[in-house]
């Protein structure tokens, strides 16, 4: 039996012509006009695929909650939306809500590249990668016992650690685009490994089926 996690990044918080900033967990922006369209496109996409969610989780931030609520609005018997604090975007420290050129000038191209490709935290950003990986693994264990489809809406800085928790970061680009999603299948009962922080499965494995899929809006 399989549990399937649909890990969604919220829609845009900026529109064309806006000054784009690095929005972290301390900045609670709403979805922009284009972000609302992306959320609606996700709802339409999942409805056309016949995906019905048994559970739904999101962060306390407006941009993730509205994205999740829009997706669930197209479902006839939508589950209650559960807030999970670990899904809140990371804290970008001195770069919080700063324009991207300023962020790049402070941390440098090498540090930004390492974040985007390896999840290595730039200096000054407040994030605990191992704790986030553990949070994702715990969620895998919880939802792996429910053999159905599960909606999880979060932010880019958090979603990448789901790949690391699944041990699949080498096979996929870490970054999720706004309004995009990934699919992780949990085949069998997910258990904690006895001698490490890794996950083991009673049967089969954790499989990242898709990553960074963005429906047209």
Describe this structure in words.
It is a single chain. By secondary structure, the chain is an alpha/beta fold. It has a single domain (2-213), classed as 3-Layer(aba) Sandwich (Rossmann fold). Helices cover 34% and strands 20% of the residues. The protein is built from 6 helices and 8 strands; from the N terminus they run E-H-E-H-E-H-H-H-E-H-E-E-E-E. It has a 6-stranded mixed beta sheet with strand order 3-2-4-1-5-8. A two-stranded antiparallel ribbon has the order 6-7. The longest helix is centred in the first third of the chain and has 17 residues, at 33-49. It is globular, with a radius of gyration of 17 Å. The relative contact order is 0.22. Mean pLDDT is 93; it is low at 194-198 and 200-204.
What tags apply to this protein structure?
six-stranded mixed beta sheet; alpha/beta; two-stranded antiparallel ribbon; Rossmann fold; 34% helix
Count of all domains: 1
Quickly give the structural class: alpha/beta
What is the CATH topology classification name?
Answer: Rossmann fold
> Cα distance, first to last residue?
33 Å
Overall mean pLDDT score?
93
Shape: globular
Q: Could you list the spans in which at least 5 consecutive residues all have pLDDT below 50? A: 194-198, 200-204
Sheet having the most strands: 6 strands, mixed
Task: Please name the CATH architecture.
Answer: 3-Layer(aba) Sandwich
| Radius of gyration, in angstroms, nearest whole number | 17 Å
Query: What share of residues are in beta strands?
Result: 15-25%
Helix content: 25-40%
Q: Which CATH first-tier class would you pick?
A: Alpha Beta
- What order do the helices and strands follow? EHEHEHHHEHEEEE
Count of DSSP strands: 8
Major beta sheet, strand line-up: 3-2-4-1-5-8
Tally of separate helices: 6
Query: Could you give me the name of the CATH homologous superfamily?
Result: Phosphoglycerate mutase-like
